[in-house]
User: What shape does this take?
Amino acid sequence: MADYYKQHWIDIDDGRHAAYDQILAYHPALEPLIKTLDLKPGLKVLDVGSGPGHTTLELARRVGPSGKVTGVDINAEFVARAGRRAKQAGLNAEYVESPFPPLKFPDGSFDRVWCKNVLEYVDSAADTVAEMARVTRSGGVVAAVDSDWDMIALEIGAAARERTERILAASQGIAVHEPRIGRRLHGLFRDAGLTEVKAEIFAGADTVGRALPMLKASFARYARDSGKIAPREIEAWLADIDSAVAAGQFFFVLPQFVVRGIKR
Assistant: This one.
């Protein structure tokens, strides 16, 4: 259980793969986040923790046939499925199965390195950021996007508030290794020797239930696997969430920290 934060990304059943295809699909709302990479045709890009590969393919579209995007992920099935998608789409993207850190690429291999909602789960966020900087060429861009679990806001009604707090705490306690990674990113980028480090925070409010797949497939699962929340309580919580959405009383915010730095 001690390394659940990592192992649950290795052991993924078909149902969770289907959920992640929905949760981690590319959406135009990601545009402000991707913009920080300043992508251009011909660039070589690394996607660290590429998951099902949907965003990787969007990056590949932007660098065009003269560029190339490489995704690296710890999950073999993610890599296989993403590779098939890239082939079907005719995009210049490849996927590599590998744990990290370290990243198994030579120094200065990429013009851009991207990492989204991954550093909260790795063994060492500091070592991973240092590796991201190492594999970036001089003058290249490193960008990371991540959450800060202490800043989650979920409101589904006063009656459910106490249970919600316990479930979120149980989820955090088991699922993430670096729960405050969002606020730490700026310092980690500077410690890795990156320059012109800039941070932005995007915190749009979900009032219609867009986050339901994540709450149901991830947060509820984490709470259940923690052993601290009874299954009947989790089912009741999920019912409360559905009721709040139907009544227009659902409110969810998970701020995304976007940090960008330049390799010397």
Remarks:
- Residues 4-147+178-205+255-262 form a domain with the Rossmann fold fold (CATH 3.40.50.150).
- The first strand starts at residue 44 and ends at 48.
